[in-house]
Amino acid sequence: MKFTVNSFAAAKENGEKITMLTAYDYTTAKIEDESGIDSILVGDSLGMVMLGYEDTLAVTVDDMIHHAKAVRRGAKNALVVVDMPFMSYQTSVYDAVKNAGRIIKETGADAVKLEGGVKFREHIRAIVDASIPVMGHIGMTPQSVNAFGGFKVQGKTYERASKVLADAKAVEDAGAFAVVLECVPDKLSAYITEQLNIPTIGIGAGGKCDGQVLVYQDALAMYGDFTPKFAKTFADVGAAMRGGIEGYIKEVKSSAFPSAEHTFKIDDEVLNKIKGCGK
Ligand code: KIV
Q1: Cα(41)–Cα(231) distance, rounded to whole angstroms?
Q2: How high is the pLDDT of residue 226?
Q3: β-bridge partners, 39
Q4: Which of 26, 144, 185, 279 has its CA 20 to 30 A from that of 194?
Q5: Are residues 119 and 91 in contact, defined by beta-carbon separation less than 8 angstroms?
Q6: What does the pLDDT read at residue 278?
Q7: For a pocket test of ligand 1, which of 84, 213, 216 has the largest count of ligand atoms closer than 8 A to its C-beta?
């Protein structure tokens, strides 16, 4: 069954947790979709885990579209959300609508996500008015890494916690269908989850959110450069890949691969004729 923005609302209403993982390519999206994930995020984290940048700032709208098209082809039932990258919406409300429209038209995705609360209320409202569902993203917003002075938990002091709460309310008032809370203390995100009518999707925000999202390379131990405290390893795919690749190298070097079962045959008669022609 196709998961839609209405399914997000129904899940909150019925107290059912929403599951979301990132994907950036066809094969991974297909595996996640077939495994029954509710929603797939084509995150701008692709800058780090797919493209090898140190942060998400260099990612372009074209990068997002390229990866989101592949994910869309692999995801039949999951709701596909695509991140609006740095400077694709911050510059003006007009740019926000134009780039959100381009992402949806060119990829066939279901929704866009953008970072920020109170400051981007008008941007969110204008995109929603253009009939494009928006997921908000507040708390530790990676596109503001330089302004925050690093990837830091947000909302520990009274001032910061009030800002996170105000951002959450602004995102809801602007018409977003859900909001990601990233690196927010668990009791604060539990309170925000109670206060909002739209679902909260947590990443490093505790167990009381209406759903959870993780970067799949973090969940499957594939990205060794940095593992956030909130990420749990659900399967050591990284180790399985390394083992498989080492096995391949060993067997090619020793000529154990390919063996007869992986080899195509030709009739000796045909071969002899070819050899005869070659003389
Ligand atoms: O880009 C991303 O993967 C994200 C998640 C961390 C929520 O925004």
Answers
A1: 16
A2: 77
A3: 20, 79
A4: 144
A5: no
A6: 63
A7: 213
Cα(43) to ligand 1 centroid in Å equals 5
Residue that has been written with the tokens 């071969």 in this structure: 271
Nearest CA to ligand 1 atom 4: 43
At residue 245, the 3 state secondary structure works out as helix
Low-confidence ranges of the chain (pLDDT < 70): 278-279
Contacts of residue 265, defined as CB under 8 A and 6 or more positions apart, other chains included, come to none
Tokens 């925050």 correspond to 148
DSSP per-residue string spanning 38-50:
SEEEE-TTHHHHT
Q: List the structure tokens of 12.
A: 């909150």
Give rounded-to-5 percent helix, strand, coil for the chain: 50, 15, 40
Q: Are 219 and 210 in contact (CB under 8 A)?
A: no
Q: Which residues pair with 40 in a beta bridge?
A: 21, 80
Q: Are 82 and 113 in contact (CB under 8 A)?
A: yes
**Residue whose pair of structure tokens reads 């060794």 in the numeric block:** 224
